[in-house]
Every structure is written in C-alpha cells, then in structure tokens.
Design a protein that fits this description.
Largest sheet: 6 strands, antiparallel
Distance between the termini: 20 Å
Shape: globular
Strand content: 25-35%
Mean pLDDT: 86
Number of helices: 5
Strand order of the largest sheet: 4-3-2-1-5-6
Order of helices and strands: HHHEEEEEEHH
Length: 158
C-alpha cells in the first residue's frame, strides 16, 4: 500500500474517531472527572515523545495532532477541547490547523491557530498503523459502548 494511501486511511480513521466522540455524540465526562484529569496529565507528561517523533521526520510516522482547550485564556467560561492537525513549532510558539468545526463561533474548521502549551490536553500520531498517545481518546473508548469501542480500537491499531 502506498504511503499516500495509508496516510489518507489513517487521517480518515482519526477523523471518524473524532466525529464519533465529538459534541453530543460519543462519551461525555464531567469537567472534574478524576479519570479525565489523569489522562490529560499523562498526555502532558509524555508530550516530549510527541515532539521528538514530529521533529525526527521518520516516514513511518504521520498524522500528528494535538488536542487542546480552544478557549484557554480567552475569558470563555466553557472549555472546548478540539483537535488540531498540521502541527508546527516556530520561534518557540506552537501552531496547528483546527481539524473540525468548533462551537466557538470566533473560529472555523481549517483555521490556523496558536496553541499555548498550557492548553494542551492530549496528543496523537500514527507509527505505521498503530496510534500513539491518545490518552483522552483511550479513556473515551473505554467508556464507549462495546461495539463502538471494539471498532475504534481496531481503527487505532490497538
């Protein structure tokens, strides 16, 4: 299978996973759920693995994404956890492209945004056909109905 085809498939898998768990669909957690906070802390603690893989440029890795609170530091009371793709660092700053339509009407899908490190909640990428990171996603899959969870684990290569 060509790298382009396998990359396209991996992106579609990540997109479908997002759509299954986004907004009103999928699994919802209370903002102060200790399991959710633990998953976020694990993601933040292992974030150096993400940066190393991204900057190494290994052709076996692809589809690098960060999940972050879009409303962090904006004065909004509500958190909006959202995925960004096309991640890059420039001059000590982090940038990404919103991978889906946000609820916050000041933003739109496909818009490039700056991501402050404090707002990062999760990270993920594929090494071959196996998803790496995705700590919050793993928690969501554990809480999903059995059939959905099985399908998502398979799509993520777990």
């Amino acid at each position: 299978m060509s790298m382009i085809l396998s990359g396209a498939i991996a992106f579609i898998v990540m997109f479908v996973a997002y759509r299954l768990f986004a907004g009103g669909a999928g699994v919802a957690f209370d903002k102060d759920d200790p399991r959710l906070e633990q998953a976020k802390q694990q993601a933040r603690a292992t974030l150096p693995q993400f940066w190393t893989a991204l900057e190494t440029g290994d052709p076996a890795t692809r589809d690098f994404m960060l999940k972050f609170n879009l409303n962090h530091g904006t004065g909004h009371r509500d958190n909006e956890s959202i995925w960004a793709c096309d991640i890059r660092r420039d001059g000590g700053r982090i940038f990404g492209t919103l991978a889906n339509e946000p609820r916050n009407s000041a933003y739109r899908e496909g818009q490039e945004v700056e991501i402050v490190p404090e707002a990062i909640e999760d990270w993920g990428y594929f090494r071959g056909s196996v998803a790496q990171g995705n700590y919050v996603t793993r928690l969501m899959i554990e809480a999903a109905p059995a059939g959905t969870a099985r399908m998502q684990r398979q799509a993520m290569g777990w």
